Amino acid sequence: MSYALETKKRKFTRVLESISKPLASGDGGAKPPTDPLMAARERLAEPPSIKKVRVGEGVLDKVSTKTTVSRILRTTSSSANLRPNFVPWDRERFLERLETFRPVTRWLSQPSPINEVEWAKRGWSCTDYMRVACVGGCGASLVVKLPEEVDDFEDLDSDKVQERKEVRQKVVEEYRKLLSDGHKENCLWRSKACDGAYVPFYYSAGLGNVTFELAATIHRLQVTNPDNAINALRDRYLKISKLQDQLPARETIELPEQLSLKEMIDILPPGFPGDSPNNSLNDDTSQQSDGKENTIDERSFAFAFFGWDVVKDGSSGLLECRACFRRLGLWLYKSKEEGKEAVYEKLPVHSEHMDYCPWINGPAQSGTGRATDRPESLSSGWQVLAQGLRTKHRRRVKTSASATPTESVPTEADTLSLDSTATDEASQRAKDREWWSKLRRVREALHVKGPKKASSQSK
Protein backbone atom coordinates (compact mmCIF):
# COMPACT_ATOMS: atom_id res chain seq x y z
CA MET A 1 0.00 0.00 0.00
CA SER A 2 1.40 3.41 -0.94
CA TYR A 3 2.18 6.04 1.65
CA ALA A 4 -0.33 8.58 0.31
CA LEU A 5 -3.20 6.06 0.36
CA GLU A 6 -2.34 4.99 3.91
CA THR A 7 -2.29 8.62 5.04
CA LYS A 8 -5.72 9.27 3.57
CA LYS A 9 -7.05 6.13 5.28
CA ARG A 10 -5.77 7.30 8.69
CA LYS A 11 -7.34 10.74 8.20
CA PHE A 12 -10.67 9.19 7.25
CA THR A 13 -10.57 6.95 10.36
CA ARG A 14 -9.90 9.95 12.62
CA VAL A 15 -12.82 11.83 11.06
CA LEU A 16 -15.16 8.91 11.75
CA GLU A 17 -13.93 8.67 15.36
CA SER A 18 -14.44 12.40 15.93
CA ILE A 19 -18.00 12.18 14.62
CA SER A 20 -18.95 9.10 16.70
CA LYS A 21 -17.43 10.35 20.00
CA PRO A 22 -19.18 13.32 21.71
CA LEU A 23 -17.01 16.32 22.44
CA ALA A 24 -16.44 17.48 26.00
CA SER A 25 -18.45 20.50 27.10
CA GLY A 26 -15.35 22.25 28.44
CA ASP A 27 -13.62 22.28 25.07
CA GLY A 28 -16.04 24.88 23.75
CA GLY A 29 -16.92 22.73 20.73
CA ALA A 30 -20.42 22.17 19.39
CA LYS A 31 -22.40 19.28 20.81
CA PRO A 32 -23.37 16.45 18.47
CA PRO A 33 -26.90 16.59 17.08
CA THR A 34 -29.49 14.51 18.91
CA ASP A 35 -33.05 13.34 18.24
CA PRO A 36 -35.49 16.17 19.18
CA LEU A 37 -38.05 13.75 20.58
CA MET A 38 -35.45 11.96 22.73
CA ALA A 39 -34.11 15.30 23.95
CA ALA A 40 -37.62 16.40 24.92
CA ARG A 41 -38.19 13.18 26.87
CA GLU A 42 -34.84 13.63 28.69
CA ARG A 43 -35.73 17.19 29.64
CA LEU A 44 -39.08 15.99 30.99
CA ALA A 45 -37.38 13.25 33.02
CA GLU A 46 -34.71 15.56 34.55
CA PRO A 47 -35.87 17.62 37.53
CA PRO A 48 -35.24 21.36 37.01
CA SER A 49 -32.39 22.89 38.94
CA ILE A 50 -32.91 25.47 41.70
CA LYS A 51 -31.60 28.26 39.51
CA LYS A 52 -34.00 27.38 36.68
CA VAL A 53 -36.94 27.16 39.01
CA ARG A 54 -36.03 30.52 40.53
CA VAL A 55 -35.64 32.25 37.19
CA GLY A 56 -38.57 30.41 35.60
CA GLU A 57 -36.67 29.02 32.63
CA GLY A 58 -37.25 25.41 33.64
CA VAL A 59 -41.01 25.88 33.88
CA LEU A 60 -41.20 27.52 30.47
CA ASP A 61 -38.95 24.86 28.98
CA LYS A 62 -41.10 22.09 30.49
CA VAL A 63 -44.33 23.62 29.20
CA SER A 64 -42.95 24.12 25.70
CA THR A 65 -41.65 20.55 25.65
CA LYS A 66 -45.03 19.17 26.70
CA THR A 67 -46.70 21.20 23.96
CA THR A 68 -44.28 19.83 21.36
CA VAL A 69 -44.76 16.23 22.46
CA SER A 70 -48.56 16.58 22.57
CA ARG A 71 -48.53 18.10 19.08
CA ILE A 72 -46.49 15.18 17.77
CA LEU A 73 -48.78 12.61 19.39
CA ARG A 74 -51.91 14.41 18.13
CA THR A 75 -50.58 14.47 14.57
CA THR A 76 -49.73 10.77 14.75
CA SER A 77 -53.20 9.81 16.06
CA SER A 78 -55.01 11.95 13.50
CA SER A 79 -53.06 10.37 10.64
CA ALA A 80 -53.85 6.91 12.00
CA ASN A 81 -57.60 7.63 12.01
CA LEU A 82 -57.72 8.57 8.32
CA ARG A 83 -60.14 6.39 6.37
CA PRO A 84 -58.88 4.61 3.23
CA ASN A 85 -60.08 6.02 -0.09
CA PHE A 86 -60.29 2.72 -1.97
CA VAL A 87 -63.09 0.71 -0.34
CA PRO A 88 -65.33 -0.60 -3.17
CA TRP A 89 -67.09 -3.00 -0.78
CA ASP A 90 -68.22 -0.29 1.71
CA ARG A 91 -71.89 0.62 1.16
CA GLU A 92 -71.77 3.66 3.46
CA ARG A 93 -68.88 5.18 1.51
CA PHE A 94 -70.74 4.46 -1.74
CA LEU A 95 -73.80 6.31 -0.43
CA GLU A 96 -71.59 9.23 0.66
CA ARG A 97 -70.30 9.57 -2.90
CA LEU A 98 -73.81 9.22 -4.31
CA GLU A 99 -75.12 11.96 -2.03
CA THR A 100 -72.72 14.48 -3.59
CA PHE A 101 -74.79 14.28 -6.80
CA ARG A 102 -78.03 15.26 -4.99
CA PRO A 103 -78.03 19.10 -5.40
CA VAL A 104 -79.67 20.11 -8.67
CA THR A 105 -77.27 23.05 -8.83
CA ARG A 106 -74.45 20.54 -9.34
CA TRP A 107 -75.82 17.61 -11.30
CA LEU A 108 -78.50 17.07 -13.94
CA SER A 109 -80.01 13.69 -14.76
CA GLN A 110 -78.02 11.64 -17.29
CA PRO A 111 -78.70 8.41 -19.22
CA SER A 112 -78.58 5.22 -17.16
CA PRO A 113 -75.12 4.05 -18.39
CA ILE A 114 -73.51 7.23 -17.01
CA ASN A 115 -75.90 8.30 -14.27
CA GLU A 116 -74.77 9.25 -10.79
CA VAL A 117 -74.90 5.66 -9.54
CA GLU A 118 -72.37 4.52 -12.13
CA TRP A 119 -69.99 7.39 -11.32
CA ALA A 120 -70.26 6.67 -7.58
CA LYS A 121 -69.57 2.97 -8.14
CA ARG A 122 -66.36 3.87 -9.94
CA GLY A 123 -65.00 6.08 -7.15
CA TRP A 124 -66.15 9.48 -8.45
CA SER A 125 -67.87 12.25 -6.49
CA CYS A 126 -69.46 15.46 -7.73
CA THR A 127 -67.38 18.51 -6.78
CA ASP A 128 -68.78 21.25 -9.01
CA TYR A 129 -71.39 21.81 -11.70
CA MET A 130 -71.31 18.66 -13.88
CA ARG A 131 -67.76 17.96 -12.71
CA VAL A 132 -66.65 14.72 -11.07
CA ALA A 133 -63.38 14.02 -9.26
CA CYS A 134 -61.71 10.84 -8.04
CA VAL A 135 -61.91 10.17 -4.30
CA GLY A 136 -58.90 7.83 -4.43
CA GLY A 137 -56.39 10.67 -4.55
CA CYS A 138 -55.18 10.26 -8.13
CA GLY A 139 -56.24 13.84 -8.94
CA ALA A 140 -58.37 12.94 -11.97
CA SER A 141 -61.27 15.27 -12.80
CA LEU A 142 -63.82 15.19 -15.62
CA VAL A 143 -66.55 17.48 -16.93
CA VAL A 144 -69.68 15.64 -18.10
CA LYS A 145 -71.41 17.46 -20.94
CA LEU A 146 -73.73 15.83 -23.47
CA PRO A 147 -75.31 17.28 -26.61
CA GLU A 148 -78.77 18.71 -26.17
CA GLU A 149 -81.80 16.48 -26.30
CA VAL A 150 -83.36 15.79 -29.70
CA ASP A 151 -86.78 16.94 -28.45
CA ASP A 152 -85.51 20.51 -28.54
CA PHE A 153 -85.15 20.32 -32.33
CA GLU A 154 -88.65 19.52 -33.50
CA ASP A 155 -88.28 21.66 -36.63
CA LEU A 156 -85.48 19.49 -38.02
CA ASP A 157 -86.12 16.71 -40.49
CA SER A 158 -85.93 13.05 -39.59
CA ASP A 159 -82.40 12.55 -40.97
CA LYS A 160 -80.92 15.30 -38.82
CA VAL A 161 -82.82 14.08 -35.78
CA GLN A 162 -81.44 10.58 -36.27
CA GLU A 163 -77.95 11.99 -36.76
CA ARG A 164 -78.14 13.91 -33.50
CA LYS A 165 -79.36 10.80 -31.69
CA GLU A 166 -76.39 8.82 -32.98
CA VAL A 167 -73.96 11.56 -31.97
CA ARG A 168 -75.44 11.69 -28.48
CA GLN A 169 -75.21 7.91 -28.16
CA LYS A 170 -71.54 7.95 -29.18
CA VAL A 171 -70.78 10.63 -26.59
CA VAL A 172 -72.52 8.52 -23.94
CA GLU A 173 -70.35 5.53 -24.93
CA GLU A 174 -67.20 7.64 -24.63
CA TYR A 175 -68.16 8.79 -21.15
CA ARG A 176 -69.01 5.21 -20.31
CA LYS A 177 -65.39 4.25 -21.07
CA LEU A 178 -64.14 7.17 -18.98
CA LEU A 179 -65.82 5.69 -15.91
CA SER A 180 -62.67 3.58 -15.56
CA ASP A 181 -60.23 5.06 -18.10
CA GLY A 182 -60.67 8.55 -16.65
CA HIS A 183 -58.62 7.55 -13.62
CA LYS A 184 -54.85 7.73 -13.78
CA GLU A 185 -52.74 4.65 -14.47
CA ASN A 186 -51.74 4.12 -10.83
CA CYS A 187 -55.27 4.56 -9.41
CA LEU A 188 -56.88 1.44 -7.95
CA TRP A 189 -60.37 2.57 -9.04
CA ARG A 190 -59.25 2.13 -12.63
CA SER A 191 -59.18 -1.67 -12.39
CA LYS A 192 -61.75 -2.33 -9.67
CA ALA A 193 -65.22 -0.91 -9.02
CA CYS A 194 -68.16 -1.53 -6.74
CA ASP A 195 -70.34 -4.43 -7.81
CA GLY A 196 -72.90 -3.50 -10.39
CA ALA A 197 -70.66 -1.15 -12.38
CA TYR A 198 -70.13 -1.50 -16.10
CA VAL A 199 -66.85 -3.35 -16.59
CA PRO A 200 -65.03 -2.97 -19.96
CA PHE A 201 -63.13 -5.81 -21.62
CA TYR A 202 -60.82 -5.18 -24.58
CA TYR A 203 -60.04 -7.79 -27.20
CA SER A 204 -56.42 -8.00 -28.35
CA ALA A 205 -57.54 -8.99 -31.86
CA GLY A 206 -58.95 -5.52 -32.45
CA LEU A 207 -62.62 -6.47 -32.17
CA GLY A 208 -63.45 -3.51 -29.96
CA ASN A 209 -64.60 -3.45 -26.38
CA VAL A 210 -67.58 -5.16 -24.73
CA THR A 211 -69.19 -3.98 -21.51
CA PHE A 212 -71.52 -5.81 -19.19
CA GLU A 213 -73.02 -5.20 -15.77
CA LEU A 214 -72.42 -7.22 -12.62
CA ALA A 215 -74.83 -7.85 -9.77
CA ALA A 216 -75.66 -4.51 -8.13
CA THR A 217 -75.64 -5.67 -4.52
CA ILE A 218 -73.89 -2.50 -3.26
CA HIS A 219 -77.15 -0.52 -3.64
CA ARG A 220 -79.46 -3.19 -2.22
CA LEU A 221 -81.67 -2.27 0.75
CA GLN A 222 -81.36 -4.17 4.03
CA VAL A 223 -84.97 -5.36 4.06
CA THR A 224 -84.54 -9.09 3.49
CA ASN A 225 -84.61 -9.73 7.25
CA PRO A 226 -88.26 -9.14 8.33
CA ASP A 227 -87.37 -8.18 11.91
CA ASN A 228 -84.82 -5.55 10.85
CA ALA A 229 -87.11 -4.26 8.11
CA ILE A 230 -90.05 -3.82 10.51
CA ASN A 231 -87.86 -2.07 13.09
CA ALA A 232 -86.58 0.34 10.44
CA LEU A 233 -90.16 0.93 9.28
CA ARG A 234 -91.17 1.74 12.85
CA ASP A 235 -88.29 4.22 13.24
CA ARG A 236 -89.24 6.06 10.06
CA TYR A 237 -92.92 6.12 11.06
CA LEU A 238 -92.24 7.59 14.50
CA LYS A 239 -90.17 10.43 13.03
CA ILE A 240 -92.62 11.23 10.22
CA SER A 241 -95.62 11.10 12.54
CA LYS A 242 -94.23 14.14 14.35
CA LEU A 243 -94.85 16.14 11.14
CA GLN A 244 -98.58 15.35 10.89
CA ASP A 245 -99.48 19.04 10.67
CA GLN A 246 -97.25 19.42 7.60
CA LEU A 247 -98.31 16.26 5.77
CA PRO A 248 -100.72 16.54 2.83
CA ALA A 249 -104.25 15.14 2.97
CA ARG A 250 -104.83 11.42 2.58
CA GLU A 251 -106.71 11.98 -0.69
CA THR A 252 -103.60 13.59 -2.16
CA ILE A 253 -101.35 10.57 -1.55
CA GLU A 254 -101.36 7.99 -4.36
CA LEU A 255 -100.25 4.37 -3.95
CA PRO A 256 -99.58 1.51 -6.40
CA GLU A 257 -102.65 -0.38 -7.50
CA GLN A 258 -101.29 -3.73 -6.29
CA LEU A 259 -100.85 -2.49 -2.70
CA SER A 260 -103.56 -2.35 -0.05
CA LEU A 261 -102.44 0.01 2.70
CA LYS A 262 -105.21 -1.22 5.00
CA GLU A 263 -103.97 -4.81 4.65
CA MET A 264 -100.42 -3.77 5.60
CA ILE A 265 -101.71 -1.93 8.68
CA ASP A 266 -103.88 -4.89 9.75
CA ILE A 267 -100.99 -7.36 9.71
CA LEU A 268 -98.55 -5.15 11.64
CA PRO A 269 -97.04 -6.74 14.77
CA PRO A 270 -98.98 -6.16 18.02
CA GLY A 271 -97.86 -3.01 19.78
CA PHE A 272 -96.73 -1.24 16.62
CA PRO A 273 -95.25 1.35 16.55
CA GLY A 274 -94.19 1.24 20.22
CA ASP A 275 -93.12 4.02 22.54
CA SER A 276 -89.50 4.55 21.51
CA PRO A 277 -87.37 3.72 18.48
CA ASN A 278 -84.98 1.63 20.60
CA ASN A 279 -87.55 -1.00 21.54
CA SER A 280 -87.59 -3.92 19.14
CA LEU A 281 -90.79 -5.56 18.00
CA ASN A 282 -90.51 -9.30 18.51
CA ASP A 283 -93.26 -11.86 18.70
CA ASP A 284 -92.26 -12.99 22.19
CA THR A 285 -92.13 -9.55 23.83
CA SER A 286 -94.98 -7.92 21.96
CA GLN A 287 -98.36 -7.36 23.51
CA GLN A 288 -100.87 -10.16 23.24
CA SER A 289 -103.77 -7.92 22.32
CA ASP A 290 -105.06 -8.09 18.78
CA GLY A 291 -105.49 -4.31 18.53
CA LYS A 292 -102.68 -1.86 17.95
CA GLU A 293 -101.26 0.20 20.79
CA ASN A 294 -101.95 3.47 19.00
CA THR A 295 -104.05 4.41 16.00
CA ILE A 296 -101.87 4.24 12.90
CA ASP A 297 -101.83 7.39 10.81
CA GLU A 298 -102.18 6.26 7.18
CA ARG A 299 -100.32 9.29 5.79
CA SER A 300 -97.24 8.79 7.96
CA PHE A 301 -97.31 5.04 7.39
CA ALA A 302 -97.53 5.47 3.59
CA PHE A 303 -94.40 7.64 3.52
CA ALA A 304 -92.49 5.36 5.89
CA PHE A 305 -93.53 2.22 4.00
CA PHE A 306 -91.99 3.51 0.77
CA GLY A 307 -88.67 4.47 2.36
CA TRP A 308 -89.18 8.18 3.04
CA ASP A 309 -87.57 9.62 6.16
CA VAL A 310 -87.03 12.98 7.82
CA VAL A 311 -83.99 14.86 6.48
CA LYS A 312 -80.80 14.60 8.50
CA ASP A 313 -80.40 18.34 9.04
CA GLY A 314 -83.90 18.61 10.53
CA SER A 315 -85.31 21.00 7.93
CA SER A 316 -89.02 21.55 8.41
CA GLY A 317 -91.42 20.11 5.84
CA LEU A 318 -88.84 18.02 4.01
CA LEU A 319 -88.63 14.26 3.54
CA GLU A 320 -85.83 12.38 1.82
CA CYS A 321 -84.91 8.91 0.67
CA ARG A 322 -81.65 7.57 2.09
CA ALA A 323 -81.08 5.33 -0.98
CA CYS A 324 -81.47 7.79 -3.90
CA PHE A 325 -81.35 11.08 -1.88
CA ARG A 326 -84.47 12.44 -3.55
CA ARG A 327 -86.19 15.12 -1.45
CA LEU A 328 -89.88 15.96 -1.10
CA GLY A 329 -91.16 19.41 -0.21
CA LEU A 330 -94.43 18.69 1.58
CA TRP A 331 -95.67 22.27 1.21
CA LEU A 332 -95.99 21.73 -2.56
CA TYR A 333 -98.82 19.23 -1.99
CA LYS A 334 -100.63 21.02 0.82
CA SER A 335 -103.30 23.70 0.42
CA LYS A 336 -102.45 27.16 1.66
CA GLU A 337 -104.16 28.69 4.66
CA GLU A 338 -105.36 31.61 2.55
CA GLY A 339 -107.49 29.25 0.47
CA LYS A 340 -105.01 28.86 -2.38
CA GLU A 341 -104.73 25.47 -3.99
CA ALA A 342 -101.62 23.33 -3.72
CA VAL A 343 -98.98 23.43 -6.44
CA TYR A 344 -99.53 19.71 -7.18
CA GLU A 345 -102.84 17.93 -6.75
CA LYS A 346 -101.45 14.41 -6.30
CA LEU A 347 -98.40 12.96 -4.58
CA PRO A 348 -97.43 9.47 -5.82
CA VAL A 349 -95.13 8.38 -3.01
CA HIS A 350 -93.73 5.47 -5.04
CA SER A 351 -92.89 7.25 -8.30
CA GLU A 352 -91.23 10.26 -6.65
CA HIS A 353 -88.08 8.20 -6.12
CA MET A 354 -85.31 8.27 -8.69
CA ASP A 355 -85.58 5.62 -11.40
CA TYR A 356 -82.56 3.71 -10.06
CA CYS A 357 -83.76 3.70 -6.44
CA PRO A 358 -84.02 0.14 -5.04
CA TRP A 359 -87.29 1.06 -3.29
CA ILE A 360 -89.02 0.99 -6.69
CA ASN A 361 -86.40 -0.64 -8.95
CA GLY A 362 -86.55 -4.44 -8.98
CA PRO A 363 -83.12 -5.15 -10.54
CA ALA A 364 -81.39 -2.71 -8.16
CA GLN A 365 -82.95 -4.38 -5.11
CA SER A 366 -82.64 -7.97 -6.36
CA GLY A 367 -78.96 -7.51 -7.16
CA THR A 368 -79.02 -8.83 -10.71
CA GLY A 369 -77.83 -7.41 -13.99
CA ARG A 370 -78.47 -10.39 -16.24
CA ALA A 371 -80.30 -9.61 -19.46
CA THR A 372 -82.27 -12.86 -19.19
CA ASP A 373 -84.09 -11.70 -16.06
CA ARG A 374 -87.41 -10.00 -16.62
CA PRO A 375 -87.75 -6.75 -14.61
CA GLU A 376 -91.40 -7.48 -13.75
CA SER A 377 -90.39 -10.75 -12.06
CA LEU A 378 -87.93 -8.98 -9.68
CA SER A 379 -89.19 -7.54 -6.41
CA SER A 380 -88.45 -3.96 -5.44
CA GLY A 381 -87.77 -2.74 -1.92
CA TRP A 382 -91.38 -2.01 -0.90
CA GLN A 383 -92.51 -5.38 -2.31
CA VAL A 384 -89.89 -7.20 -0.23
CA LEU A 385 -91.05 -5.26 2.83
CA ALA A 386 -94.69 -6.21 2.17
CA GLN A 387 -93.70 -9.86 1.79
CA GLY A 388 -91.81 -9.69 5.10
CA LEU A 389 -94.88 -8.33 6.88
CA ARG A 390 -97.03 -11.14 5.46
CA THR A 391 -94.46 -13.74 6.47
CA LYS A 392 -94.29 -12.50 10.06
CA HIS A 393 -98.10 -12.41 10.20
CA ARG A 394 -98.44 -16.03 9.01
CA ARG A 395 -95.97 -17.15 11.66
CA ARG A 396 -97.92 -15.38 14.37
CA VAL A 397 -101.17 -16.96 13.18
CA LYS A 398 -99.67 -20.46 13.22
CA THR A 399 -98.08 -19.92 16.64
CA SER A 400 -101.30 -18.60 18.17
CA ALA A 401 -103.33 -21.43 16.59
CA SER A 402 -101.06 -24.10 18.09
CA ALA A 403 -100.92 -22.40 21.49
CA THR A 404 -104.71 -21.84 21.86
CA PRO A 405 -106.75 -24.97 21.04
CA THR A 406 -110.04 -23.15 21.52
CA GLU A 407 -111.83 -21.97 18.42
CA SER A 408 -111.63 -18.28 17.64
CA VAL A 409 -113.21 -16.16 14.97
CA PRO A 410 -110.53 -15.43 12.33
CA THR A 411 -110.07 -11.89 11.10
CA GLU A 412 -110.05 -10.85 7.47
CA ALA A 413 -106.26 -10.74 7.37
CA ASP A 414 -106.04 -14.22 8.93
CA THR A 415 -108.39 -15.62 6.31
CA LEU A 416 -106.41 -14.07 3.47
CA SER A 417 -103.12 -15.42 4.78
CA LEU A 418 -104.50 -18.95 5.34
CA ASP A 419 -106.14 -18.99 1.92
CA SER A 420 -102.93 -17.89 0.25
CA THR A 421 -100.97 -20.60 2.11
CA ALA A 422 -103.44 -23.31 1.07
CA THR A 423 -103.35 -22.10 -2.52
CA ASP A 424 -99.56 -22.19 -2.57
CA GLU A 425 -99.49 -25.77 -1.26
CA ALA A 426 -102.10 -26.94 -3.76
CA SER A 427 -100.26 -25.32 -6.67
CA GLN A 428 -96.98 -26.88 -5.52
CA ARG A 429 -98.55 -30.37 -5.42
CA ALA A 430 -99.97 -29.85 -8.90
CA LYS A 431 -96.54 -28.83 -10.19
CA ASP A 432 -94.97 -31.95 -8.62
CA ARG A 433 -97.53 -34.25 -10.24
CA GLU A 434 -96.99 -32.63 -13.61
CA TRP A 435 -93.22 -32.99 -13.29
CA TRP A 436 -93.41 -36.72 -12.45
CA SER A 437 -95.79 -37.35 -15.34
CA LYS A 438 -93.38 -35.64 -17.75
CA LEU A 439 -90.51 -37.72 -16.37
CA ARG A 440 -92.46 -40.97 -16.91
CA ARG A 441 -93.28 -39.99 -20.49
CA VAL A 442 -89.62 -39.24 -21.22
CA ARG A 443 -88.53 -42.59 -19.82
CA GLU A 444 -91.13 -44.42 -21.90
CA ALA A 445 -90.08 -42.57 -25.05
CA LEU A 446 -86.42 -43.43 -24.52
CA HIS A 447 -87.19 -47.06 -23.49
CA VAL A 448 -85.08 -46.78 -20.41
CA LYS A 449 -84.56 -50.23 -18.90
CA GLY A 450 -83.35 -51.10 -15.46
CA PRO A 451 -79.92 -52.62 -14.81
CA LYS A 452 -79.43 -56.35 -15.45
CA LYS A 453 -79.35 -58.68 -12.51
CA ALA A 454 -76.02 -59.83 -11.20
CA SER A 455 -76.92 -63.49 -11.70
CA SER A 456 -77.50 -63.06 -15.42
CA GLN A 457 -74.20 -61.27 -15.80
CA SER A 458 -72.31 -64.04 -14.04
CA LYS A 459 -73.77 -66.66 -16.34
TrEMBL record:
GO molecular function: zinc ion binding
Biased composition (Polar residues): 276-289, 399-409
Region (Disordered) location: 272-293, 393-432
GO cellular component, one term: nucleus
UniProt main location, coarse: nucleus
Keyword Metal-binding: yes
Record has Methyltransferase as a keyword: no
Localization (cell): Nucleus
Organism: Talaromyces atroroseus
Domain C3HC-type, residue spans: 88-201
Keywords: Metal-binding, Nucleus, Zinc, Zinc-finger
Annotated NuBaID C-terminal domain residues: 301-396
Protein name (record): C3HC-type domain-containing protein
